[in-house]
């Protein structure tokens, strides 16, 4: 089990700058969030690879820049856009494989999308089949203002796809839909491969660990007891801290209790 920091936590710093800051602070596990189409160019990916190798960072997952466009590109009734998305995810899987990442994170469709749950799952599996050609798996993330923010929809995906659907579980996104994160983790445990972690309180639903009420010691004890082999990535917004150093202080504290 590893604890890491997402480059998204340092947004809006440039992706390569965020990765280098993570490396300079001794963090060995990360998720790279791509923020522009130009960052998919081979020369840019090679630069990220150089930074990763120089600092000895393990990139476990990547997050496409097209997340906000996924309802329009992947889950609309217009097949041509979906076919273009297959090529796009093939490129992301090439990038993930180059960087050594196992997972691509998917937000999915907006609530009340046109497709049935079965049609959604069919498209999910077409994309997954494409990325697995490069040894990379798509993880469905629970995102509050997307279809996947609804636990009933996650249950439907699991009922339709069984073990073929795998999840990235985000604590703050569960809080935003008024779910108890611990209860959802228990329910979907068999399908969870990756965590986005943060803290929360009445003041804010997205805080750095140890600034809110979440029981991280209990969380990691549960992961250890269940022999979790994946990663827990600190993913917060830049209004959750005053200086980036606070992120890395939290990372060290989390490692100490792990």
Any overview of this molecule?
The chain is an alpha/beta fold and 258 residues long. Helix content is 43%, strand content 15%. It contains ten helices and eight strands. The protein has an eight-stranded parallel beta barrel, surrounded by five helices. Helix 1 (15-24) runs parallel beside helix 2 (42-55) and helix 4 (79-99) packs across helix 5 (117-131). The radius of gyration is 17 Å and the shape is globular. The termini are close together. The model has no long low-confidence stretch (mean pLDDT 96).
So what's the overall shape? Answer: globular
Question: How helix-rich are the residues, as a percent range?
Answer: 40-55%
Low-confidence stretches: none
The rounded distance between the terminal residues' Cα atoms is 9 Å
The biggest beta sheet is recorded as:
8 strands, parallel, barrel
Strand line-up across the major sheet: 1-2-3-4-5-6-7-8
Structure annotation, total helices: 10
Name the beta content range: 15-25%
Average predicted confidence as pLDDT: 96
Rounded to an integer, what's the Rg over CA atoms? Answer: 17 Å
What structural category arises from helix and sheet content?
Answer: alpha/beta
Number of strands: 8
Question: Can you write the helix and strand succession as a string?
Answer: EHEHEHHEHEHEHHEHEH
